[in-house]
Hints:
By secondary structure, the protein is of the alpha+beta class. The protein has one domain. Helix content is 40%, strand content 14%. The protein is built from 3 helices and 6 strands, in the order βββββααβα. The protein has helices at 47-51, 59-65, 74-104, and strands at residues 7-8, 19-20, 28-30, 33-35, 41-43, 71-72. The strands form 2 sheets. The protein has a 4-stranded antiparallel sheet, covered by helices on one side. Strands 2-6 form a two-stranded antiparallel sheet. A hairpin with a 5-residue loop joins strand 4 (33-35) and strand 5 (41-43). The two termini are 32 Å apart.
Amino acid sequence: MATRSFRALAAVAVAAEHLVVGGNGATAFRDERVYVNEAQYFEGATERSWDFFIDGYQPAQKWLKDRRCRTLTPANILHYERILRALDLTAEIMVEIDGISGSLIPPQ
């Protein structure tokens, strides 16, 4: 499995001491970045972690929406990075399991 690293508060937002989730829920994913407002983002995310569904929810998106208009603490930022990584690894493992289970089914 390839290891991905995440960098919170990339170049544009490094000067900020804290991260503020956009008040209008304007979170977005583009160019391997999860934007939490117009100027601040998590870099190194994957689209599959952003779009990943669990029981009808998209955890990466829901977590941020639940924190609209809040300032994220360093612990919150670390937690969100871990969520993105866990979702990415889960999706990767699911692909591996699908490949293994497909090879165990005898041809008909």
